Amino acid sequence: MNRFNFAKNIAIGAAVVLSLTLARAADDLPKADTILDKYIEVSGGKAAYQKHHTEVAKGSFSLAAMNINGPVVSYRAEPNKSLTEIDFGSMGKMREGSDGTVYWMSFAMTGPHVKEGPEKAQAAMSARFNEELNWRDIFKDAQTTGVDTVDGKECYKVQLTPSEGPPITQCYDKESSLMVKQSMTVQSPMGEAQSDSFFSDYRKEGDVLMPHKIKVNAPGQEVVLTFDTITFNADIPADKFALPDEIKALVKK
Amino acid sequence: MRFSFGVILAVALSGLSFAQPTLTPAQRQLNIYSFELVWKTVHDKHWDPKFNGIDWQAVHDELRPKVEKAASTDEARDVMSDMLGRLKQTHFGIVPGEAYKELDQKDDDGKSSPSEGDPGIDVRLVDGHTLVTFVTPDSPAEVKGVKPGWEILSIEGKELAPGMAKVHAALGSVLMAELIETRSVVERMRGPIDKTVEVEFLDGKDRKVKLKLGRTGPRGTETIVGSLPPLYFWMDAHKVQSDIGYVHFNVFFEPDAVAGSVQKLMSECRDCKGFVIDLRGNPGGLGAMAMGLAGWFTSQNGLRLGTMNMRSMTIKFVVFPRPEPFRGPLAILVDGCSASTSEIFAGGMQDLKLGRVFGTHTAGAALPSLFTKLPNGDGFQYAVANYISEGGKPLEGVGVTPDQEVKLTRHQLLEGQDPVLDAAVSWIHGQ
């Protein structure tokens, strides 16, 4: 055995040991469906979620590095209607929504557009009401892939694979079972962007625990969303989810 | 990009002078923190991990002792500016904290009360002469009878020509020379609103005229974007010769206002023979607005103006067609003071053959950048990406070459003509 082969064998051996270690670690991890169902349970239970038919969340965003902040309001209704409005002040307003069929976005800086392809698939996933309950319908596969650490506490990493688009990884706190992190590749006609979101400040809204703070780390920027109120089953005017005229005109084209 | 190079330049050239008291230990430490933040930001976020060929760590090690010894914030700022200057790229700069003082002078309506202003004159260099190209209506300059085409000979008794010749020699063939020289003249006329500035002109009959001009607040409405110093935005959208839509705005800010005005004009101009987007003197602003503006002039999906390359991702400057875009000829007017987002728009539309560019070569200052405030109160602008126009060329240091070069002349300006706009109108009518 020459030195090269020895070195190669060491490397192969190390890889084998590593793979065995990983395999053993995977065996010790709870299954993904157990983790996801546990989250439903600890955050309020299936019955509590099922009582909800609409959601209105109001708060603010902060881009601290650039001293930019403003109000955020989000309306959602089952099964998949949504409208999010963010006011960037002098940088203009951004609106993003779905009437259940068409997924769209309008930003003063870039203009309106109707989402298609991977962007539409991701928007449809996000617009799904009570997505926590319906993960089996949204994702074709869920696997526990390891352990991560968020704010010094360990969490289980669950990789969720949608029927279309790249997988999403969510991390659930080992102790509380609450979701504390989500990593995904955001799809957009302008390109793909890796995004890590950190969920905290869980508080009860009605019978369900909801995160009131979301820190989003996107390339070059950190955005913090803080929700002051989250109201379930509020009356949302029927036309709230109607397509804006400019989007209607684009759909007709 | 979130900030225009022109703003940095304007502040840097403003000649503001403030007494610098001796630094307290705490202030000295804040300057050191600021130095480290500037260095680390570039280290972590510059799109080129090789820092344009500079040994960035060595720059730090060389300059850190200097910032530690700096006896004033001005000196510390000079050290930080020196550090950024080593990159030899635009959109890196330090804005003195004093530039933010306007922010602290709010009226009841929440807007600033500008303490500084100018006589209402815009200028360009034409064959080595500093010519008035625009006089703001109702401004002190207009009241005193200043006209486009007049040459500025001196400001506050100081002749322009020798200084400009030195600057021009120093800058050589640097594309940004026109932008820098022009802004320096405008800034020399700026000052306290309650004081006058003496300007000597060569009028339309070649007579020397010395005028004491008052100053007025900046044209337009104040706009504040994040950590940027307050800026002033104005926009002009109307028809020319009744059959051409004309849009002119000074910076790429206030996207809602720009979108609203363009949309309104577009609806009034469905039968127009063409459109003109005038970006002369526009130093840039929010880069994404170039995409939004382009969407009014194509119905084709999937087009893009160019690509922005950051260290961690690539952003395509995609054009989202508006519901009812204008399909006729588009003329884009530029000059040496058109920079950044103006170049992204003009260069991209030229590459896509969606517009014909008229005027003179642009500034070649097109790096997307961000702006943040430093611990010592100064502002810090830093580029985070390189930008490649759709045709495959970078705009930084290259700029946009007009399809049809049209230079200003003193004679035409004195005659009240706008040869660049005239050329665009003529082209549109010939389509």
Strand neighbour order, sheet with most strands of chain A = 6-5-4-3-2-1-13-12-11-10-9-8-7
Low-confidence stretches of chain B: 1-20, 102-112
CATH fold field value of the largest domain in chain A:
outer membrane lipoprotein receptor (LolB), chain A
Order of strands in the sheet with most strands of chain B: 12-13-14-17-18-22
Question: Uncertain spans of chain A, ≥5 residues at pLDDT below 50?
Answer: 1-26
The CATH topology assignment of the largest domain in chain B is: 2-enoyl-CoA Hydratase, Chain A, domain 1
Please count the helical segments of chain A: 6
Q: What is the end-to-end distance of chain B? A: 34 Å
Main sheet attributes: strand count, strand direction, barrel closure of chain B: 6 strands, mixed
What is the level-2 CATH architecture name of the largest domain in chain B?
Answer: Alpha-Beta Complex
Name of the CATH homologous superfamily of the largest domain in chain A = Lipoprotein localisation LolA/LolB/LppX
| Percent strand of chain B | 15-25%
**Count of beta strands of chain A:** 13
Describe this structure in words.
- The complex is a heterodimer of chains A (253) and B (431).
- Chain A is of the alpha+beta class.
- Chain A has two domains: 1-29; 31-252, outer membrane lipoprotein receptor (LolB), chain A (Clam).
- Chain A has helices spanning 3-28, 32-43, 46-50, 117-127, 135-138, 245-252, and strands at residues 54-63, 68-77, 81-87, 93-98, 103-107, 111-114, 139-150, 153-162, 168-173, 179-186, 193-205, 208-218, 221-232.
- The longest helix of chain A has 26 residues, at 3-28.
- The model of chain A is unreliable at 1-26 (pLDDT under 50).
- Chain B has 431 residues and is α+β, with helices and mostly antiparallel strands.
- Chain B has three domains: 17-95, Transcription Regulator spoIIAA, CATH 3.30.750; 116-213, Roll (Pdz3 Domain); 234-367 and 384-416, 2-enoyl-CoA Hydratase, Chain A, domain 1 (Alpha-Beta Complex), CATH 3.90.226.
- In chain B, helix 1 (5-12) packs across helix 7, helix 2 (25-45) packs parallel to helix 4 and helix 3 (56-69) packs antiparallel against helix 4 (73-85).
- The radius of gyration of chain B is 22 Å and the shape is globular.
- Classes of the chains: A alpha+beta (253), B alpha+beta (431).
- The interface between A and B is medium-sized, with 29 and 38 residues.
